[in-house]
Amino acid sequence: MDCKIKENISNCPCTYKGCSKKGKCCDCLKSHLIKRQLPACCFTKDAEKTYDRSFEHFIKLVNNGEI
Ligand code: SF4
Predict the structure, then answer these.
(1) Residue of 12, 20, 22 to test ligand 1 pocket, by largest number of atoms within 8 Å of CB
(2) Is the beta carbon of 16 within 6 A of some atom in ligand 1?
(3) Most buried among 10, 22, 27, 65, by the most CB within 10 A?
(4) What are phi and psi of 37, to 5 degrees?
(5) Phi and psi (nearest 5°) for 42?
(6) Is the CB of 39 under 6 A from ligand 1?
(7) Which residues pair with 37 in a beta bridge?
(8) Those residues with Cβ within 8 angstroms of residue 19's Cβ, 6 or more apart along the chain or in another chain
(9) Distance between CA 51 and CA 20 in Å, rounded?
(10) How far apart are CA 12 and CA 60, in angstroms?
């Protein structure tokens, strides 16, 4: 299976500039999970901009019906 990095980058909603993991979804997910976080693509546009990628933030959004 080939890496879909170009396709991934074009669909990535992450606004954090200069991240070397952009488009490398496997590395992106791994780096966030070990910090008890989720990647940018799991959040709404407004929530993503806060850069709070914590599980707790995600759960709060789910409980508020925003996700
Ligand atoms: S979600 Fe995190 S690891 Fe993934 S591209 Fe954005 S800043 Fe980088």
Answers:
(1) 22
(2) yes
(3) 22
(4) -135, 170
(5) -90, -5
(6) yes
(7) 54
(8) 28
(9) 16
(10) 23
Q: Which of 20, 25, 22 is nearest to 3 (CA)?
A: 25
Instruction: Provide the token pair at 32.
Output: 């966030």
Closest CA to 42 of 26, 24, 23, 55: 55
Sorted by where each begins, the domain ranges of the chain are 5-63
Place of tokens 């991240």: 19
Please tell me the distance between residue 64's alpha carbon and the centre of ligand 1 in angstroms: 24
Q: pLDDT digits over 30-54, tens only?
A: 999 999 999 999 999 999 999 999 9
Q: How many CB atoms lie within 10 A of CB 47?
A: 18
Q: Is the CB of residue 14 below 6 angstroms from any atom belonging to ligand 1? A: yes
* Ligand 1 lined by 23 (C-beta under 6 Å): no
The predicted model gives 3-14 an average pLDDT of: 96
